[in-house]
Every structure is written in structure tokens, then in C-alpha cells.
Amino acid sequence: MKISLQKLTLVLLSIFISNATFAQESTVDKVISLVEDLIETETEEEETTSTGLSISGSADTYFRTNLSGGSNDGSDGGTLAPASSFANLPGFSLGMANLIGAYEGDKGGVVVDLVFGPRGSDAVFASSPTNGLYSSTGDVVNQLYAYWNVSDNATITMGNFNTFLGYEVISPTGNFNYSTSYAFSYGPFSHTGLKLDIATESGFSIMAAVLNPTDITEFNPTGDYFFGAQLGYGGFYLNGLFGDNYSQFDLTGGVDVSDKLYLGINATITDAGDETGFSGATLYAQVAASDQLKIGARYEFFQDKDGNYVFGSNVRDTNASDFTLSANYSVGNLTIIPELRFDSLSEDLFIDSDGEAGSTLTSFVLAFVYGF
After folding, report:
1. How many C-beta neighbours within 10 Å does residue 157 have?
2. How far apart are CA 148 and CA 263, in angstroms?
3. Could you give all domains of the chain from N- to C-terminal order, each with its CATH number?
4. What is the pLDDT of residue 14?
5. Residue from 81, 117, 84, 76 nearest 98 by CA
6. pLDDT tens-digit profile of 251-291?
């Protein structure tokens, strides 16, 4: 605690002036009492005008192998992984290094979120210099935004921020399963724009946003804009994203059924025009076996109307399902995640090492995720 020289001088002067009045008290007692009052006043002032810089982040690595229905050799043309985002590289692989710097003042702040490595590159794919955008370093910026706390219940944010839609997130520290769902993989991942968040006294939260086209984060190359909206209550959120010939509705949330059981849900439907789009529903369950060990499962059913994006196929109306069983074992800030995943498609699109096509793929992942 720092006490200003001016205030300390006033303390000593007041002791001198009041010495006769408080003759029954010892000088030491008077000094202690007045200095304690001064420290309390300084503390209150510092809390009122607090500002600060914080650094957080994570790093993750993993091992991945196909047990059946695919290949572990990238040269034989077989399927290396399900067509969902991240954790798709064979053998011992790198995930992402994530560094987040935040500075917060009384009325606002700024966040700079940088990503490095394969998972980070996949997360900001539309900002890669190879896509012809402005910056040569755009592929390391996951988020960059400033915000203004207009009141205790309202915040205005402008810049690049991760999406408000969906259940899963880019950072593995925010997910229970290490691999991601098909619904998450179809996006969106990020937005650049202006949004207003309002928290009401009744427990509802409201968000409205004006945004660049999805995942184009550095600037707006088309002059088109999207509109986003969110209504939240009790840990559940109804989301909407709307643009030219595009609409997406999304419901996500979760509830602690007991001290040991958690259940979550995500449902999404998108219409991109010309009979294209996607829809899906995902259920999540997690059980705490001990303070260090949790076991969880994810089940997803997903449909892609045109079949082009994730499945790499011209087969229309492709359906997919995945059942993922994961454990989270925590050792301090380190989380160890062994994971078994079963994928099934409505078409024979998985290719094994012998070139045979099939509709199922079984894989195993072991991930180390460290957050700080």
C-alpha cells in the first residue's frame, strides 16, 4: 500500500495540533489509529479507480490414431480424421499456443488474443495472408476488441471477437471434449463488428450486433453486413445470425442436475439459400467421479444439405453422427484428456489404408491441455 507524502504530513500535523486535546491517549496510539484510517481511505480510492493488465492463455498437444475405418498414413489417400475441426493430424501433433492480454479500467478495456500453431491457424482460416486479406500477420489474431462499460448493466464492444453461437469454443480449455462437433466445425468461428450486451435485473441477457461477413475478421471486403442477436436466461441462450440470403438459429445451454452431473445441449439450423445449409443437435453429459477426474460423453446428429463443405463430397443430404467418450484428469493447471470417438455417415465416405470405402470411423486421442 502506497501512502502519499502529502497525506502523511497531514497526519503528523494533526497529531501535533490535537496533542493537548487527546492528552489521555499516548502518541503511539494516536499515530496507529490515524495511519490505519489513512490506509483504509487509500484502499477504497484504489478500488474505485482500479486498472490492471492481465495475461492468460493455454497450450495443448495431442496424439491421434485411427483404430478402424481410416488410415494413419497421410500418403496413402485414406481418411486421417473425421471432417470436424481441430485435432485432425496423425501421430504426435501440436494443437495451439494461446496468449491473451487484457487491460481493464473503470469504464472500459481492451483484449488482444493471439494464437499460434495448427489449431490457431484453422481457427482464423479466413484471415490467412494466402486468402489475400490486408495484414501479413492476420493469421495469429484470434480476437482484438475494445469495450465500453456504459453502465453496470450495458457494454458496447467493437472489434474482432469469437462467435456467440454454439456450445463449443476455439480454445480447448473451454471444452470438455478435445475433438469438436460437426455443428461447431460448420461455424461461425469469429465476427468483426459492433455489439451491445445488456444484462437485466430480472436475469435475462440481451445482445444485438452489426457484423462483417462471417469469419472475415480484418475488414469488410464486400460491403455486406450481417446482424446478430441473442437472448439468454438461466444458462440457456437463443441465438440468431442473419445476412443476405442467410439465416441461422441456434440454441445452447446447460444445467447442473446435481453436484456431480451436468447436462448440456446445442441445436442449430441454417438456411443458406438454393437448398443449401445444415442442421444438427448435440447432447452433452459430464459426471464428476472425483475432484480430479470427470467422465463425459457427447452425442451428435448432423445433416449437411449440399454435402460439399465438411464431407468433401458432392453427395447431397449427407447425415453424420458422432459419439465421443472423454475423460478429464486434472493435475493442477494441466488437464489430461483420453478420448474415444465413433463417427458414422449416411454414405461410404471414409477411406481406409487399403482404399476401401466405408461409413464408420473409430479413433483415439490423448491430449495434454495446460491453461494459465
Report:
1. 19
2. 34
3. 1-49 (no CATH), 50-371 (2.40.160.10)
4. 54
5. 117
6. 999 999 999 999 999 999 999 887 788 999 999 999 999 99
